[in-house]
Amino acid sequence: MALSRSSFFLRFVMLSVIGHAYVGLRLIPDAPVGAAAAASAWLWLLLSCALIPLGMLSRRASHPRPWGEAAAWVGLLALGFFSSLFVFTVLRDSVLLAAWIAALLGAHVPMLPLREMSALLVPALALLGSLVGFANARRLARVVTVKVPIAGLPDALEDFTIVQISDVHVGPTIKAGYVRAIVEAVNAERPDMIAITGDVVDGSVEMLSAHTQPLADLSAPHGVYLVTGNHEYYSGASAWVQEFRRLGLRVLMNEHAVAGPDGCDVVVAGITDYTAGSHDAQHRSDPSRALAGAPADAAVKVLLAHQPRSAMAAAPLGYTLQLSGHTHGGQFFPWGFFVRLQQPFTAGLHRHKGMWVYVSRGTGYWGPPKRLWAPSEITRIRLVRA
Length: 386
Prior knowledge:
single chain, six-stranded mixed beta sheet
Protein backbone atom coordinates (compact mmCIF):
# COMPACT_ATOMS: atom_id res chain seq x y z
CA MET A 1 0.00 0.00 0.00
CA ALA A 2 2.84 2.39 0.88
CA LEU A 3 4.51 1.55 -2.45
CA SER A 4 1.34 2.29 -4.43
CA ARG A 5 0.93 5.61 -2.59
CA SER A 6 4.53 6.56 -3.37
CA SER A 7 3.99 5.63 -7.02
CA PHE A 8 0.84 7.73 -7.14
CA PHE A 9 2.65 10.66 -5.54
CA LEU A 10 5.50 10.49 -8.06
CA ARG A 11 3.02 10.42 -10.96
CA PHE A 12 1.18 13.34 -9.40
CA VAL A 13 4.41 15.37 -9.16
CA MET A 14 5.34 14.59 -12.77
CA LEU A 15 1.90 15.60 -14.05
CA SER A 16 2.07 18.76 -11.95
CA VAL A 17 5.42 19.73 -13.49
CA ILE A 18 4.10 19.10 -17.01
CA GLY A 19 0.92 21.04 -16.27
CA HIS A 20 2.80 24.05 -14.90
CA ALA A 21 5.14 24.07 -17.90
CA TYR A 22 2.18 23.92 -20.28
CA VAL A 23 0.43 26.85 -18.59
CA GLY A 24 3.59 28.94 -18.55
CA LEU A 25 4.46 28.27 -22.20
CA ARG A 26 0.93 28.97 -23.39
CA LEU A 27 0.21 32.13 -21.38
CA ILE A 28 3.36 34.04 -20.51
CA PRO A 29 4.77 34.60 -24.05
CA ASP A 30 1.37 35.93 -25.21
CA ALA A 31 0.74 38.23 -22.24
CA PRO A 32 1.40 41.91 -23.04
CA VAL A 33 3.61 42.47 -20.00
CA GLY A 34 7.21 43.50 -19.43
CA ALA A 35 10.18 41.23 -18.80
CA ALA A 36 9.99 41.70 -15.02
CA ALA A 37 6.32 40.66 -14.89
CA ALA A 38 7.02 37.65 -17.13
CA ALA A 39 9.91 36.58 -14.89
CA SER A 40 7.66 36.95 -11.83
CA ALA A 41 5.02 34.75 -13.49
CA TRP A 42 7.59 32.03 -14.17
CA LEU A 43 8.82 32.31 -10.57
CA TRP A 44 5.27 31.91 -9.27
CA LEU A 45 4.74 28.79 -11.40
CA LEU A 46 8.00 27.32 -10.11
CA LEU A 47 6.97 28.08 -6.53
CA SER A 48 3.51 26.60 -7.11
CA CYS A 49 5.10 23.46 -8.53
CA ALA A 50 6.96 23.02 -5.23
CA LEU A 51 4.19 24.08 -2.84
CA ILE A 52 1.47 21.76 -4.16
CA PRO A 53 3.36 18.49 -3.45
CA LEU A 54 4.48 19.90 -0.09
CA GLY A 55 0.86 20.52 0.82
CA MET A 56 -0.09 16.99 -0.22
CA LEU A 57 2.73 15.49 1.87
CA SER A 58 1.74 17.49 4.96
CA ARG A 59 -1.79 16.07 4.71
CA ARG A 60 -0.42 12.55 4.87
CA ALA A 61 1.69 13.07 7.98
CA SER A 62 0.76 10.65 10.78
CA HIS A 63 1.61 13.10 13.57
CA PRO A 64 1.05 16.86 13.85
CA ARG A 65 4.02 19.02 12.91
CA PRO A 66 4.45 22.75 13.58
CA TRP A 67 4.80 23.56 9.88
CA GLY A 68 2.33 20.97 8.63
CA GLU A 69 -0.87 22.97 8.90
CA ALA A 70 0.58 26.09 7.27
CA ALA A 71 2.13 24.01 4.47
CA ALA A 72 -1.18 22.26 3.88
CA TRP A 73 -3.09 25.55 3.65
CA VAL A 74 -0.59 27.11 1.24
CA GLY A 75 -0.22 23.99 -0.87
CA LEU A 76 -3.95 23.27 -1.12
CA LEU A 77 -4.79 26.90 -1.95
CA ALA A 78 -2.13 26.78 -4.67
CA LEU A 79 -3.61 23.53 -5.98
CA GLY A 80 -7.10 25.04 -6.15
CA PHE A 81 -5.87 28.08 -8.04
CA PHE A 82 -3.69 26.09 -10.42
CA SER A 83 -6.51 23.67 -11.17
CA SER A 84 -8.64 26.54 -12.47
CA LEU A 85 -5.65 28.12 -14.21
CA PHE A 86 -4.97 24.88 -16.07
CA VAL A 87 -8.62 24.36 -17.08
CA PHE A 88 -9.01 27.92 -18.33
CA THR A 89 -5.75 27.60 -20.27
CA VAL A 90 -7.08 24.51 -22.02
CA LEU A 91 -10.36 26.32 -22.78
CA ARG A 92 -8.39 29.30 -24.09
CA ASP A 93 -6.41 27.06 -26.42
CA SER A 94 -9.68 25.57 -27.68
CA VAL A 95 -10.99 29.06 -28.47
CA LEU A 96 -7.72 30.03 -30.19
CA LEU A 97 -7.82 26.86 -32.27
CA ALA A 98 -11.38 27.61 -33.35
CA ALA A 99 -10.39 31.21 -34.19
CA TRP A 100 -7.38 30.00 -36.20
CA ILE A 101 -9.58 27.60 -38.20
CA ALA A 102 -12.09 30.40 -38.80
CA ALA A 103 -9.25 32.64 -40.07
CA LEU A 104 -8.10 29.91 -42.45
CA LEU A 105 -11.62 29.75 -43.83
CA GLY A 106 -11.52 33.45 -44.58
CA ALA A 107 -13.07 35.04 -41.52
CA HIS A 108 -11.52 38.21 -40.17
CA VAL A 109 -10.19 37.28 -36.73
CA PRO A 110 -7.91 39.67 -34.81
CA MET A 111 -5.63 36.89 -33.57
CA LEU A 112 -2.97 39.01 -31.83
CA PRO A 113 -5.42 41.03 -29.66
CA LEU A 114 -7.31 37.81 -28.92
CA ARG A 115 -4.17 36.04 -27.75
CA GLU A 116 -3.00 38.98 -25.64
CA MET A 117 -6.35 39.68 -24.02
CA SER A 118 -7.07 36.02 -23.28
CA ALA A 119 -3.59 35.50 -21.78
CA LEU A 120 -4.50 38.12 -19.14
CA LEU A 121 -8.12 36.99 -18.79
CA VAL A 122 -7.27 33.38 -17.89
CA PRO A 123 -5.37 34.10 -14.61
CA ALA A 124 -7.96 36.73 -13.70
CA LEU A 125 -10.79 34.22 -14.07
CA ALA A 126 -8.82 31.57 -12.19
CA LEU A 127 -8.24 33.98 -9.31
CA LEU A 128 -11.88 35.04 -9.22
CA GLY A 129 -13.04 31.43 -9.28
CA SER A 130 -10.67 30.54 -6.46
CA LEU A 131 -11.85 33.41 -4.26
CA VAL A 132 -15.52 32.63 -4.82
CA GLY A 133 -14.83 28.92 -4.40
CA PHE A 134 -13.00 29.55 -1.12
CA ALA A 135 -15.91 31.53 0.28
CA ASN A 136 -18.35 28.78 -0.79
CA ALA A 137 -16.25 26.04 0.80
CA ARG A 138 -15.62 27.74 4.12
CA ARG A 139 -19.16 28.85 4.85
CA LEU A 140 -21.51 26.55 6.76
CA ALA A 141 -23.25 24.04 4.50
CA ARG A 142 -26.87 24.93 3.79
CA VAL A 143 -29.71 22.63 4.80
CA VAL A 144 -31.32 20.97 1.76
CA THR A 145 -34.72 19.33 2.26
CA VAL A 146 -35.49 16.30 0.07
CA LYS A 147 -38.84 14.51 0.06
CA VAL A 148 -38.65 10.78 -0.64
CA PRO A 149 -42.05 9.36 -1.66
CA ILE A 150 -42.65 5.81 -0.44
CA ALA A 151 -45.69 3.75 -1.40
CA GLY A 152 -47.69 2.45 1.55
CA LEU A 153 -45.75 4.47 4.13
CA PRO A 154 -47.47 4.06 7.53
CA ASP A 155 -48.99 7.14 9.14
CA ALA A 156 -46.48 6.95 11.99
CA LEU A 157 -43.61 7.38 9.53
CA GLU A 158 -45.09 10.28 7.56
CA ASP A 159 -42.51 13.09 7.82
CA PHE A 160 -39.96 10.82 9.52
CA THR A 161 -36.78 12.86 9.14
CA ILE A 162 -33.24 11.65 8.57
CA VAL A 163 -30.52 14.31 8.53
CA GLN A 164 -27.51 13.21 6.50
CA ILE A 165 -24.00 14.61 6.61
CA SER A 166 -21.20 13.25 4.46
CA ASP A 167 -17.63 13.89 3.39
CA VAL A 168 -16.74 16.36 6.12
CA HIS A 169 -13.03 15.54 5.67
CA VAL A 170 -11.77 16.78 9.01
CA GLY A 171 -8.09 17.41 8.37
CA PRO A 172 -5.49 20.11 7.79
CA THR A 173 -7.99 22.86 6.89
CA ILE A 174 -11.16 21.59 8.58
CA LYS A 175 -10.97 21.72 12.35
CA ALA A 176 -13.15 21.52 15.46
CA GLY A 177 -14.84 24.90 14.93
CA TYR A 178 -16.01 23.92 11.46
CA VAL A 179 -17.27 20.57 12.79
CA ARG A 180 -19.02 22.16 15.76
CA ALA A 181 -20.97 24.49 13.46
CA ILE A 182 -22.15 21.47 11.45
CA VAL A 183 -23.23 19.63 14.60
CA GLU A 184 -25.21 22.62 15.85
CA ALA A 185 -26.95 23.01 12.49
CA VAL A 186 -27.84 19.29 12.39
CA ASN A 187 -29.23 19.26 15.92
CA ALA A 188 -31.24 22.41 15.19
CA GLU A 189 -33.22 20.42 12.62
CA ARG A 190 -34.42 18.08 15.41
CA PRO A 191 -34.14 14.99 13.20
CA ASP A 192 -35.60 11.59 14.03
CA MET A 193 -32.36 9.97 12.90
CA ILE A 194 -28.88 11.11 11.83
CA ALA A 195 -26.81 9.39 9.13
CA ILE A 196 -23.10 10.02 8.51
CA THR A 197 -22.13 8.49 5.18
CA GLY A 198 -18.35 8.28 5.35
CA ASP A 199 -15.18 10.27 4.70
CA VAL A 200 -15.36 11.97 8.06
CA VAL A 201 -11.59 12.33 8.39
CA ASP A 202 -8.38 12.88 6.47
CA GLY A 203 -5.67 11.95 8.94
CA SER A 204 -4.86 9.79 11.94
CA VAL A 205 -6.70 9.56 15.26
CA GLU A 206 -3.63 11.05 16.95
CA MET A 207 -3.82 14.14 14.75
CA LEU A 208 -7.56 14.68 14.62
CA SER A 209 -9.39 13.19 17.60
CA ALA A 210 -9.71 16.61 19.26
CA HIS A 211 -11.29 17.98 16.09
CA THR A 212 -13.85 15.19 15.71
CA GLN A 213 -14.90 15.47 19.37
CA PRO A 214 -17.91 17.75 18.57
CA LEU A 215 -19.53 14.78 16.78
CA ALA A 216 -20.25 13.35 20.23
CA ASP A 217 -22.91 16.05 20.64
CA LEU A 218 -25.02 14.82 17.70
CA SER A 219 -28.39 13.73 19.02
CA ALA A 220 -31.50 12.09 17.55
CA PRO A 221 -34.17 9.96 19.24
CA HIS A 222 -33.75 7.05 16.83
CA GLY A 223 -29.97 7.06 16.71
CA VAL A 224 -26.84 8.48 15.08
CA TYR A 225 -25.35 6.05 12.55
CA LEU A 226 -22.05 6.12 10.66
CA VAL A 227 -20.43 4.11 7.88
CA THR A 228 -16.84 4.20 6.68
CA GLY A 229 -15.70 5.90 3.49
CA ASN A 230 -12.54 5.35 1.47
CA HIS A 231 -10.69 8.08 3.36
CA GLU A 232 -11.20 6.28 6.67
CA TYR A 233 -9.19 3.44 5.14
CA TYR A 234 -6.44 5.86 4.08
CA SER A 235 -6.36 7.15 7.67
CA GLY A 236 -6.48 3.93 9.73
CA ALA A 237 -10.04 2.60 9.64
CA SER A 238 -9.87 0.26 12.64
CA ALA A 239 -8.59 3.01 14.93
CA TRP A 240 -11.21 5.41 13.65
CA VAL A 241 -14.05 2.92 14.11
CA GLN A 242 -13.03 2.61 17.76
CA GLU A 243 -12.83 6.39 18.09
CA PHE A 244 -16.24 6.95 16.51
CA ARG A 245 -17.75 4.40 18.88
CA ARG A 246 -16.06 6.14 21.81
CA LEU A 247 -17.85 9.32 20.69
CA GLY A 248 -21.16 7.49 20.96
CA LEU A 249 -21.79 7.00 17.23
CA ARG A 250 -23.26 3.69 16.05
CA VAL A 251 -20.83 2.42 13.41
CA LEU A 252 -22.48 -0.05 11.03
CA MET A 253 -20.01 -2.49 9.48
CA ASN A 254 -22.11 -4.61 7.09
CA GLU A 255 -24.82 -4.79 9.75
CA HIS A 256 -28.13 -3.16 10.62
CA ALA A 257 -30.16 -1.71 13.45
CA VAL A 258 -33.93 -1.49 13.85
CA ALA A 259 -35.32 1.90 14.80
CA GLY A 260 -38.50 3.88 14.24
CA PRO A 261 -41.61 4.63 16.30
CA ASP A 262 -43.41 1.76 18.06
CA GLY A 263 -44.94 -0.70 15.65
CA CYS A 264 -43.27 0.79 12.56
CA ASP A 265 -39.85 -0.68 12.03
CA VAL A 266 -37.23 1.30 10.15
CA VAL A 267 -34.25 -0.86 9.27
CA VAL A 268 -31.09 1.20 8.98
CA ALA A 269 -28.29 -0.86 7.46
CA GLY A 270 -24.73 0.24 6.84
CA ILE A 271 -21.92 -1.16 4.73
CA THR A 272 -18.22 -0.52 4.66
CA ASP A 273 -16.82 1.48 1.77
CA TYR A 274 -17.07 -0.04 -1.70
CA THR A 275 -13.24 -0.38 -1.82
CA ALA A 276 -12.76 -1.49 1.80
CA GLY A 277 -11.89 -5.07 0.81
CA SER A 278 -8.75 -3.91 -0.96
CA HIS A 279 -7.52 -2.45 2.35
CA ASP A 280 -8.79 -5.14 4.71
CA ALA A 281 -10.34 -8.38 3.44
CA GLN A 282 -12.46 -8.66 6.58
CA HIS A 283 -14.06 -5.29 5.78
CA ARG A 284 -15.28 -6.24 2.31
CA SER A 285 -18.48 -4.32 1.54
CA ASP A 286 -21.55 -6.60 1.67
CA PRO A 287 -25.09 -5.12 1.31
CA SER A 288 -26.64 -8.61 1.61
CA ARG A 289 -24.93 -9.37 4.91
CA ALA A 290 -25.96 -5.96 6.24
CA LEU A 291 -29.61 -6.93 5.81
CA ALA A 292 -29.35 -10.46 7.21
CA GLY A 293 -31.88 -11.05 9.97
CA ALA A 294 -33.71 -7.79 9.45
CA PRO A 295 -37.52 -7.80 9.82
CA ALA A 296 -38.89 -8.78 6.41
CA ASP A 297 -42.01 -6.67 6.94
CA ALA A 298 -40.17 -3.49 7.94
CA ALA A 299 -41.92 -0.42 6.56
CA VAL A 300 -38.67 1.18 5.37
CA LYS A 301 -35.18 -0.23 4.79
CA VAL A 302 -32.47 2.41 4.55
CA LEU A 303 -28.93 1.62 3.41
CA LEU A 304 -26.02 3.87 4.31
CA ALA A 305 -23.32 3.35 1.68
CA HIS A 306 -20.51 5.81 1.09
CA GLN A 307 -20.25 5.34 -2.68
CA PRO A 308 -23.29 5.56 -4.99
CA ARG A 309 -22.11 2.57 -7.04
CA SER A 310 -23.04 0.29 -4.13
CA ALA A 311 -26.61 0.70 -5.43
CA MET A 312 -25.94 -1.82 -8.18
CA ALA A 313 -25.67 -4.63 -5.62
CA ALA A 314 -28.12 -3.20 -3.10
CA ALA A 315 -31.17 -2.54 -5.28
CA PRO A 316 -32.18 -6.20 -5.83
CA LEU A 317 -32.09 -6.86 -2.06
CA GLY A 318 -35.22 -4.90 -1.20
CA TYR A 319 -33.81 -1.68 0.20
CA THR A 320 -36.15 1.32 0.05
CA LEU A 321 -33.55 4.09 0.08
CA GLN A 322 -29.78 4.35 -0.18
CA LEU A 323 -27.98 7.39 1.23
CA SER A 324 -24.52 8.04 -0.22
CA GLY A 325 -21.87 10.73 -0.66
CA HIS A 326 -18.31 10.44 -2.01
CA THR A 327 -18.77 12.48 -5.21
CA HIS A 328 -18.87 15.99 -3.69
CA GLY A 329 -21.03 16.77 -6.72
CA GLY A 330 -17.69 17.32 -8.47
CA GLN A 331 -16.77 20.05 -5.93
CA PHE A 332 -15.66 22.51 -8.59
CA PHE A 333 -15.67 22.86 -12.36
CA PRO A 334 -15.04 20.78 -14.40
CA TRP A 335 -14.56 17.69 -12.21
CA GLY A 336 -18.28 16.97 -11.96
CA PHE A 337 -18.20 15.77 -15.56
CA PHE A 338 -15.65 13.08 -14.62
CA VAL A 339 -17.59 11.66 -11.67
CA ARG A 340 -19.84 9.68 -14.02
CA LEU A 341 -16.82 7.74 -15.28
CA GLN A 342 -16.79 5.99 -11.90
CA GLN A 343 -20.18 6.51 -10.27
CA PRO A 344 -23.75 6.04 -11.59
CA PHE A 345 -24.96 9.29 -9.99
CA THR A 346 -23.25 12.59 -9.22
CA ALA A 347 -25.69 14.28 -6.85
CA GLY A 348 -29.36 14.46 -5.88
CA LEU A 349 -32.26 12.00 -5.75
CA HIS A 350 -32.43 9.15 -8.27
CA ARG A 351 -34.40 5.97 -8.83
CA HIS A 352 -32.59 2.69 -9.52
CA LYS A 353 -34.54 -0.54 -10.03
CA GLY A 354 -37.20 0.37 -7.51
CA MET A 355 -34.82 1.79 -4.92
CA TRP A 356 -34.36 5.48 -4.20
CA VAL A 357 -30.75 6.71 -4.13
CA TYR A 358 -29.80 10.07 -2.68
CA VAL A 359 -26.25 11.33 -3.26
CA SER A 360 -25.06 14.19 -1.06
CA ARG A 361 -22.67 16.79 -2.44
CA GLY A 362 -20.86 16.57 0.89
CA THR A 363 -20.86 18.70 4.01
CA GLY A 364 -17.19 19.71 3.88
CA TYR A 365 -14.70 19.49 1.03
CA TRP A 366 -11.62 17.51 0.07
CA GLY A 367 -8.25 18.94 -0.91
CA PRO A 368 -8.45 22.57 -2.01
CA PRO A 369 -10.85 24.69 0.07
CA LYS A 370 -12.90 25.42 -3.01
CA ARG A 371 -16.46 24.79 -4.22
CA LEU A 372 -17.95 26.07 -7.48
CA TRP A 373 -21.38 25.03 -8.80
CA ALA A 374 -21.45 22.19 -6.28
CA PRO A 375 -22.51 23.67 -2.92
CA SER A 376 -21.96 21.73 0.28
CA GLU A 377 -25.07 20.50 2.06
CA ILE A 378 -26.63 19.15 5.21
CA THR A 379 -29.43 17.00 3.83
CA ARG A 380 -32.82 16.75 5.52
CA ILE A 381 -34.49 13.63 4.17
CA ARG A 382 -38.28 13.55 4.72
CA LEU A 383 -40.16 10.32 4.18
CA VAL A 384 -43.59 10.98 2.69
CA ARG A 385 -46.34 8.77 1.36
CA ALA A 386 -46.22 8.37 -2.41
